[in-house]
């Protein structure tokens, strides 16, 4: 296929957390608000005068310094974020909105104020205690947490307008971005898509780490380009898979899977578009803030949720993606030492293989790819098994 016009530019934006568009927004006087987790509604960090920045640590291959503060037997994503902070990679941030989603994330975020790695006099940290169930009681608790830990600090410490009108405006802009990303992602449903999983991964990531007002024109232009882009004459992959699991913010991981022969047609993982690009509908009789809380709690599929309804939702959503995107199987990953997703991976693998009869490959990965020989072997063997099943008529 012909190269996408902005793909190289997008790839360059992902090389550093403080990229060209971040610098542009900061120069215009906007506040940079960092976050690590879907529990923190992205839309609330894009109120007037602010922009959200989901934290990554690109090209981080060592966590030696962070290892002094966190055990090496903890999530390498969290350690990499702390490492990059100590290196000065997040000095552009004016605040970090954290979520105590797991012990490791909590410890990493706590060090942002314990050792003060961000050299910005305005910088502060606040942490949300997120709910573990999706019922109405937990929704009310979630509202209180977001009001006290997100809206009030924004207003009191940065002077941000957090009125209902301001949140409605932020929701409208958020929905516009979501519509573009969703339409681009839906092209992967086609038998021979005009976009690869790697390209979509890059597009989804830049929509999370760049100021929305500045990246949206590029995304809209890319969508128009894709509508007329001619795909390969023949579908160039041997299989189609849904990638599911914990944190994946390195597009080279998706590229690895695709060089082994399977196109990643749907991305249900942390940093993926499922969930994160669902539009927010403000229902009659509710405020914009209430709509945001309801929507994020509804779509949140973190393995931290322990109630049966949320567990079933996670599995139902993956099965839905398999069917809608015409996938042949699932690759289920978890970050090394991630307690929640490692438990979830074992349970989900049994359910998908033995109860829902969907071929599933499970792997554990580091944050930085590093040596990929074992992963490549696993992926190639799994793809071959999918091909054999296709030849045998799905048996």
- State the helix count: 13
| Total of domains | 2
* Number of extended strands: 8
Q: For the record, give the distance between the C-alpha atoms at the N and C termini, rounded to a whole number.
A: 33 Å
Instruction: Write down the Rg.
Output: 20 Å
Mean pLDDT: 96
What's the SSE blueprint?
Layout: H1 7-13, H2 20-27, E1 31-35, E2 50-54, H3 76-86, E3 95-99, H4 103-114, E4 124-128, H5 136-158, H6 164-186, H7 197-209, H8 212-227, E5 239-247, H9 251-259, E6 262-270, H10 288-299, H11 308-324, E7 329-335, H12 339-355, E8 360-365, H13 373-391
Parallel strand pairs: 1-2, 1-3, 3-4, 5-6, 5-7, 7-8
Helix pairs in contact: 1-7, 3-4, 5-10, 6-7, 6-8, 7-8, 7-9
Describe the structure.
The structure is a single chain. Helix 12 (339-355) links the parallel strand 7 and strand 8. The chain has helices at residues 7-13, 20-27, 76-86, 103-114, 136-158, 164-186, 197-209, 212-227, 251-259, 288-299, 308-324, 339-355, 373-391; strands at residues 31-35, 50-54, 95-99, 124-128, 239-247, 262-270, 329-335, 360-365. The chain has two domains: 25-165, Rossmann fold, CATH 3.40.50; 168-194 and 230-391, 3-Layer(aba) Sandwich (Rossmann fold). Helix 6 packs parallel to helix 8 (212-227). The protein is of the alpha/beta class. It starts with 6 loop residues before the first helix and ends with a helix. The protein is globular and about 65 Å long.
């Amino acid at each position: 296929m012909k190269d996408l016009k902005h793909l190289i530019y997008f790839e360059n934006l992902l090389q550093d957390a403080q990229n060209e568009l971040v610098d542009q927004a900061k120069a215009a006087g906007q506040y940079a608000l960092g976050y690590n987790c879907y529990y923190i509604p992205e839309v609330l960090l894009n109120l007037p005068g602010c922009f959200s920045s989901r934290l990554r640590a690109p090209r981080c291959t060592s966590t030696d310094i962070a290892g002094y503060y966190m055990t090496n037997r903890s999530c390498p994503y969290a350690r990499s974020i702390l490492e990059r902070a100590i290196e000065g990679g997040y000095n552009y941030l004016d605040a970090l909105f954290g979520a105590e989603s797991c012990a490791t994330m909590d410890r990493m975020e706590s060090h942002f104020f314990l050792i003060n790695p961000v050299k910005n006099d305005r910088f502060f940290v606040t942490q949300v205690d997120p709910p573990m169930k999706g019922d109405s009681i937990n929704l009310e608790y979630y509202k209180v947490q977001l009001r006290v830990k997100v809206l009030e600090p924004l207003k009191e410490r940065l002077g941000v307008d957090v009125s209902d009108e301001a949140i409605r405006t932020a929701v409208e802009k958020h929905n516009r971005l979501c519509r573009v990303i969703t339409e681009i992602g839906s092209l992967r449903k086609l038998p021979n898509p005009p976009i690869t999983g790697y390209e979509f991964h890059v597009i989804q990531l830049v929509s999370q780490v760049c100021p929305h007002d500045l990246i949206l024109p590029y995304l809209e232009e890319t969508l128009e380009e894709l509508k007329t882009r001619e795909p390969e004459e023949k579908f160039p992959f041997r299989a189609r898979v849904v990638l599911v699991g914990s944190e994946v913010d390195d597009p080279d991981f998706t590229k690895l899977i695709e060089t082994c022969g399977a196109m990643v047609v749907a991305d249900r993982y942390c940093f993926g578009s499922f969930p994160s690009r669902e539009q927010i509908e403000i229902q009659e009789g509710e405020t914009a803030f209430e709509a945001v809380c309801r929507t994020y709690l509804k779509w949140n599929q973190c393995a931290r949720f322990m109630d049966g309804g949320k567990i079933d939702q996670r599995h139902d959503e993956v099965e839905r993606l398999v069917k809608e995107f015409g996938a042949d199987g699932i690759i289920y990953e978890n970050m090394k030492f991630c307690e929640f997703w490692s438990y979830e991976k074992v349970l989900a693998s049994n359910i998908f293989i033995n109860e829902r009869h969907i071929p599933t490959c499970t792997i554990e990965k580091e944050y930085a790819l590093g040596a990929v020989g074992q992963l490549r072997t696993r992926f190639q063997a799994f793809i071959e098994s999918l091909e054999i099943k296709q030849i045998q008529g799905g048996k």
